[in-house]
Amino acid sequence: MNIRDIDHITLTVKDIERSVRWYHEVFDLPIIEFDDGRRGVKVGKQKINFQAADTSHLPVAKHPTIGGADFAFIATDPLANILSHLTNYAVEIVDGPLPKTGAQGPMTAVYVRDPDENLIEIGKYDN
To answer: VOC domain: from which residue to which, for each copy (predicted)?
Structure first.
């Protein structure tokens, strides 16, 4: 089997519209609609789908959990701009900036939480 990419992830959230709006506004991700009105956001070549905890789209994980995700985005902006942008949107920085190692090597990362308490690492590669 030759798997080389990720197509999408699905986050279980309390309020789909709130999550779509937050990811669109804070991270400037385009909103998309698919499969008869489901909503998500585009992230490069991938997407994030949102499902409500009480109306999951089948099939689902065995235990879909609000706030159980932990994932990383890659940013290309200077770190000072990232920090300023997060401050402007009143997004609390949980940790960082910290040196980390991403899939492509050394980076500097900050951690934030979305409205459902999912942990999001925002990494800026050092090269």
So the answer is: 5-125
**Residue 83: burial class (beta carbons within 10 Å; 0-12, 13-18, 19+):** middle
Any bridge partners for residue 112, and if so which?
A: 93, 120
Q: Give the pLDDT of the chain (127 residues) as one tens digit per residue.
A: 988 889 999 999 999 999 999 999 999 999 999 988 889 999 999 999 999 887 766 777 778 789 999 999 999 999 999 999 999 999 999 999 999 999 999 999 999 999 999 999 999 998 7
Distance CA 1, CA 11 (A): 26
Superfamily of domain 8-125: 2,3-Dihydroxybiphenyl 1,2-Dioxygenase, domain 1 (3.10.180.10)
Q: Could you write out the DSSP letters of every residue in 69-98?
A: -EEEEE--S-HHHHHHHHHHTTPPEEEEEE
| Calpha distance 46→49 (Å, rounded) | 10
Q: What pTM was computed for the model?
A: 0.90
